[in-house]
Amino acid sequence: MSWSLFEYGNIKGITDLFGNSVLDKNPVTDIHHIWGALLVSGVTISMGYFASKSIKKSNSIIPTDKLDSRNIMEIFIEYFYNLTKDIIGPEAKTYFPWIVSFSIFIFFSNALGLIPGMVPPTDMLSTTLALALMSFVLYNYYGIKKQGALNHFKHLMGPIWWLAWLMLPIEIISHLARPLSLALRLMGNIAGDHMLLGIFLGFGVLAFITPIPIMMLGMIVVVVQTMVFTILSIVYIAMAVEDHH
User: Fold this and answer.
1) Distance CA 232, CA 240 (A)
2) What is the tens place of the pLDDT at every residue in 127-138?
3) How far apart are the first and last CA of the chain?
4) How confident is the model over 201-232, as pLDDT tens digits?
5) Residues 191 and 36 sit within 8 Å (Cβ to Cβ)
6) Of 13, 81, 85, 124, whose CB count within 10 A is highest?
């Protein structure tokens, strides 16, 4: 990880509260991803508050011609609602609040890495694994809620009963691999992109010129990785709640 403003938040008294890392069992000494996540959460919650306030104040569904928090939030909400509806169908509104929450948090977390002195919280497996596990819990929860626990489990056995002995372990491994692949894909791409940007920023006088193409590429990575995580989460929910015959 390159230098960031969040390093000043690695105060020993605070890091001691986290004890040892669950992943590598070593004492936690770097909590930049937590400060970054708190910053992103604060920004997005504030944007949502001001967007809601703007709608109530104007008492109109017609947005203004300014690029304010309301327009930014409406762009996210409209796009991802239509995307969720196209994949899941009319029931999209039930699952949409979680989907748009994923998309907004991941997008702004990824984009934070494009600001000099900032490190994206999504460049740490701790953050991306938490998001992936939440997606895993949600689609299983909605699947059980819609189909019932027995039918949701029967779906793991495949369409033919005499192949259940083969399909069950394959499906279990597939489901357990989903959160891991979501977490590693997001973390790997964002960490690699931010590392590359950090290398070019260290080129002295060329630091103001060479990062421009890399930042443009980084913006593509920010959008693509947000889309990949969000779309896969939508697909997992759609597969869990669909009627099985």
Assistant:
1) 12
2) 999 999 999 999
3) 50
4) 665 545 555 567 777 888 899 999 999 999 99
5) no
6) 124
